[in-house]
Design a protein that fits this description.
- The protein is α/β, with parallel strands linked by helices.
- It has one domain: Rossmann fold (3-Layer(aba) Sandwich).
- 45% of the residues lie in helices and 12% in strands.
- The protein is built from 12 helices and 5 strands.
- It has a 5-stranded parallel beta sheet, with helices on both faces.
Amino acid sequence: MAETRSLRDVLRVKPGSRVRLADIDPRETFGRDKDASKDELAAGIERLAGLQERLYAEGKQALLVVLQGIDAAGKDGTIRHVMAGFNPMGCRVVSFKVPTADEVAHDFLWRVHREVPGHGEIAVFNRSHYEDVLVVRVHDLVPKDVWSRRYEEINAFEALLAANGIRIVKIFLLISRDEQRERFQERLDDPTKRWKFRMGDLDERKLWDDYIAAFDDALTRCSTDVAPWYVIPADRNWFRNLAVAEIVAETLEEMDPQYPPADPTLPADLKVE
Ligand code: ADP
């Protein structure tokens, strides 16, 4: 039954399979119910908070959540809603912007590597090293022979992180072209959202098909057993939040962090005077 299938299984890009985003419906909800989703999300966030606390206390593993999506896909909203229960002490959000002069003077993974989470920590990447096979490819910022090598370089990099105790979850938020138009228009019409809009957003929108082709390739070539991609239908915010919360919570559950043992020299009946 659709309702009982784990969204994590349904939405994972099976390693080796070919992704065609054009074949995926951004409004799909897999039988989930909007009315029930509020309580489900609240429960999911509470579950996440407990798991994060254990991860932090254990201090042996780390979680990296990579968030990508076309402009207005809802990356910021996902972070706001899903990460709401995390204790800021063990969680970091890193936003990757146009690289600085210092960053472009290095290999493309240099600025990324130093932001990966340490043991006990969760890091959420708002954009990531994938920009180097997305915007960079679409705008020909480096020659093709350079960006086309990067898929393998990314896989090797992520395998290195995984081998060092970092669990990687990569989330792609899929919205439709119509939904993006509505969201852009809403930004223009709402004085509290207008600041988010840039003229350049319209130029990027014209390149929609190029971006989708670049995402198709990145998702196809870089979904691996140790660092799988998940494609989240994201036209409906409530479903997006629910799906991301469930995927992250199930991943943390699988990691099964444990509270460290107490000091063995502590007497069982010790009383604080
Ligand atoms: P956001 O859209 O993430 O809220 P911005 O409006 O500041 O934040 O956009 C960040 C910009 O930085 C995006 O246009 C993105 O494509 C660009 N960017 C990120 N990484 C790279 C990169 N490696 N090379 C070129 N541009 C990049």
